[in-house]
Design goal:
The chain is built from no helices and eleven strands. A hairpin with a 6-residue loop joins strand 4 and strand 5. The strands form two sheets. Strands 2, 4, 5, 6, 9, 10 and 11 form a seven-stranded mixed beta sheet that branches. The chain is globular. With 118 residues, the protein is mostly beta strands.
Amino acid sequence: VQLQASGGGLVQAGGSLRLSCAASGRTSSTNVMGWFRQAPGKEREFIARISWSGDSTVYADSVKGRFAISRDNAKNTVYLQMNSLKSEDTAVYYCAARTYGLTTYDSWGRGTLVTVSS
C-alpha cells in the first residue's frame, strides 16, 4: 500500500487544519489506519487510529477533544481534522496503514509538515 499525506501548512495558534492521506495499491488488505507525528528533536508519537469500518477510534491524550480522525473507504482516504491547534502541535505528520492480521503498521507515507505559530 502506498500512502500520500497532504494538507499541512502554517497556521496560527487556535486555528484548524485538515490533513488527508490517500492510499493506493492493495488497499483491500488494509485494516487500521493511523496518524503519527514527529516534532523536531523528539521521537515519533502516536496521534490517532481508526478501524476499517470507522466505528472504532483511539486518540492520544494530547489531542483528545481537539483532533478527529475519519475515513472514506470509497475514496481510500483517511482524514485528520485538527482544531484548536497549539504551538506544541508543530511537527511532521505521518499516516500509516496496518494490514489485516498484523499488530504493527507496515505501510508509511511521507510526512506533511504542520507549523503552528503562536
